[in-house]
Amino acid sequence: MTTSTRGAAKTPAVLVLEDGRTFRGRAYGAVGETFGEAVFSTGMTGYQETLTDPSYHRQVVVMTAPHVGNTGVNDEDPESARIWVSGYVVRDPARVPSNWRAKRSLDEELERQGVVGISGIDTRALTRHLRERGAMRVGIFSGDAVAADAELLAKVQQSPQMKGANLSAEVATKETYVVAAIGTKRFTVAAVDLGIKGMTPQRMAERGIEVHVLPATATAEDVYAVNPDGVFFSNGPGDPATADGPVAVMQEVLKRRTPLFGICFGNQILGRALGFGTYKLKYGHRGINQPVQDRTTGKVEVTAHNHGFAVDAPLDQVSDTPYGRAEVSHVCLNDQVVEGLQLLDQPAFSVQYHPEAAAGPHDAAYLFDRFTTLMEGQRA
């Protein structure tokens, strides 16, 4: 990514997809060029959390909501210490932010962090194109980076693909840190950071859990050095087929029968640890309005998602694995994609979506209570 910060608002910009489709608009945020995987998010709120979610590393996010930036940017809502998206695409950015917590405008924050964006394009047409053709590589170019369409297309087609990308270590913490339990400490959890969001250990801390957040490169010895009551594997970016290290660590956790909980990338890691495959979705699930059924209760939840890969596990049967029987516990009602797994013979489960849901619905917050119950049962 190359950027500059020269009066973006009136600077022409162009978005080029790897299949050659082109959209022209105005620069938004930093001026320059950037590349990534074009994906669309259906959330109408929570753009600040989306931007700072490490799961969006190397993705160019297209907002389907037409008006973005109305509430500006504050210092309380980020899910990590920086913006992770590679680029940002909006139709009608707010001219003036209006919120009592706002410290600066969204375009100012994008410019400050060097994030190249584009505004004033038909995001509905772009979203329909991605739904029909699938997520693909994209480039955004503005200012001096704009050139002939053929030259820009060649740059996009030479950029890295998401399939086969091993990205967790790029976004995870380099050093272990601890999030203290709120109130009385009840449990200790080792959380393997594959791209963890700040709200996730917060939700555990609210339940009396002291969370030791470990790097993505943590070994089983590192995990058990904190004497955990449970082990957690977080969300994160990239292709789960590349995550051999975390898979090996999870398999050791399963061997020891320690209570285990995985979210998003962690769900895909559990799938691989159990012997299932993973595959790339056509255009993925992103947003805060995805319907998922908990098959263990029949309840339908409105959930927050960001995933472009999924677990390939049978929906209608219990599977035998090296760690006991496993079944699909949750399923997306839009397309029947696997949204959760659970073991029937030991305390381990995972979900594909984000139950911490900041911003978003809180229908799935009970999953943290389910994890706590597993640790209580193991201790008893």
What does this structure look like?
With 380 residues, the chain is an alpha/beta fold. It has ten helices and 21 strands. Strands 11, 12, 13, 14, 15, 16, 17, 18, 19, 20 and 21 form an eleven-stranded mixed sheet that branches. The chain has a seven-stranded mixed β-barrel with strand order 2-3-9-7-5-4-10. Strands 6-8 form a two-stranded parallel ribbon. Helix 6 links the parallel strand 12 and strand 13. Helix 8 crosses helix 9. The protein is globular, with a radius of gyration of 21 Å. The model has no long low-confidence stretch (mean pLDDT 95).
**Structural class assignment:** alpha/beta
- Helix fraction, binned, reads 10-25%
Strand content: 25-35%
Q: List how many beta strands DSSP finds.
A: 21
Unreliable segments (pLDDT under 50, ≥5 consecutive)? none
Given the structure, what is the number of helices? 10
- What Rg is obtained from the alpha carbons, in whole angstroms? 21 Å
Q: Outline, from the CA principal axes?
A: globular
- Through-space gap between termini: 53 Å
On the 0 to 100 scale, the average pLDDT is 95
| Main beta-sheet strand count, sense and barrel state | 11 strands, mixed
